Amino acid sequence: MRNILVIDDDEIIQNVLDKVLTKEGFHIELAGNGKEGLSQIEKMAYDLVITDLMMPYANGFEIISRLKKHPNTANAAIIVISSITNEDSIMDGFKLGIDEYVRKPIIIGELVMRIKKLLSPRT
Amino acid sequence: MFESPYSFENLDVGQNPTWLNWFLSLPLVIQIAVVSILISTCFILYIQYRIWYIRFKNYIYNKRVKYIVPILDDLITEQIVLKSNASQNQFGEPAFNIPNQIRAEFRSRKYRQIIIDRIIKYQADFTGTIGTEMRNLYMELGLDKVSFRKMKSRKWEKKIRGIRELTNMDILIADVNILPLTNNKRQELRSEARNAYIKLSKNEPFKFFDVTTEPLLKWDQIELFKTITTTENIAIPNFARWVTYSNNKSVVAFCMELIVYYKQYDAAPAVVKLLENKDHLLRAQAINCLGKLKYEQAAPQLVHIYSNQPLNCRLEILKALGRMGNKENVTFLKQEFMYSTDFDIRKNAAKSIVRNSNKQQIDLLMESCTPENQLILKHNLNPLIKY
């Protein structure tokens, strides 16, 4: 079973992603802020991390750079979900190594398809 | 034994000693002190009461949230998130399978505001199927009626809340209800109503420009600009209509900003007519608009009126001539640069010259001008400096 970590301070997004992705057969772990997210990655390895950019304690960019350096998440795909529309911020995210940028409000079906595509074995 | 001169026994004010008589017999300083202490005590008691009241209200609110939000979240998860096409049931049947008891609770005065806020939060986070279903749920629970009732409230802040809820849920508001609010005396309310009108009106989102007599403040303009430029599928009209006919100067000025943003070249002749307007601020903005549209046909008229204009309009003319990119204007710009005594005029003329001249021409000009003008020219040659 593929492991996904969701780091978001919005409990609605947490709840919906938890329900939808569990139904799709993934194992989901939730973290309410950057600090919790970084402590979660100490416990197990993840195949995908979904993170917000603006959160208390540690912002998304800081988290992404830490994820890329940590052995449990160094190879994990990263999806950023954010309402930020600033082009520079999005570009900064891609420079740090994110795989997808999904803008809020989210189309849940589209997000699930992107996740499946990212986690499907590449031929 | 010591006896106080202010005891009741020693009072000789009137026949029956009362608290008032006793108080009046005290020295003035003491009277003032007593009154101050009484007022302060009452004030502190009132503040304490308000603190307790607000804490109690928050406690009750949090208790209600804790009870009702998990029920709503479960319902949304089961019937919307995990089950698509929830509303495609047979005609006439309720789209959502909500037990009557819960339905009544959702509609009750105690919980409905919490439900509305939660649904709006979902709507802000999700679009597509979930977004559409949230709107359906909001309608089915009759919460739109609650928001419409708020719009009829006497309190302006409640009206704003109603408008905001309906706008977030994309519920159409009749012109007869919303249009008068776009011209309300209360700035916050009219700003909210204008934004809502643009977002919700499908055919003529800018109709309120026709009726608005209150000025569009700078902040209103920023908000409106953001709404107009970020709302999808909005019908953009030709803004020349308001530039020509509106009596509201702030509407005319704002329309010129929109003309530039949407590059409405057809509107340029209407803007040219504003060069004869008595208001120099409006004239300056019209010149700025023509420059940004690069409407070269207006250049001779701008040069012609230049000498009769106040400084702000002159500066705008110099900038506009630079933006238009017409080489014929360079002679005029050079003349202003060489002979004007005003620093700002020389600075802006130099900027426009640099924009429209090659290196050779600038070198020639550099040789023929004063040391101060040489510095101005050098300053303008730096591509990092913009104004």
Automatic annotation (TrEMBL), chain A:
Domain Response regulatory residues, every copy: 3-119
Keyword Phosphoprotein: yes
Protein name: Response regulator transcription factor
PANTHER family, sorted: RESPONSE REGULATORY DOMAIN-CONTAINING PROTEIN (PTHR44591:SF3), STRESS RESPONSE REGULATOR PROTEIN 1 (PTHR44591)
Keywords: Phosphoprotein
Modified residues annotated as 4-aspartylphosphate in this record: D52
Alphabetical GO biological process terms: phosphorelay signal transduction system
Species of provenance: Arachidicoccus ginsenosidivorans
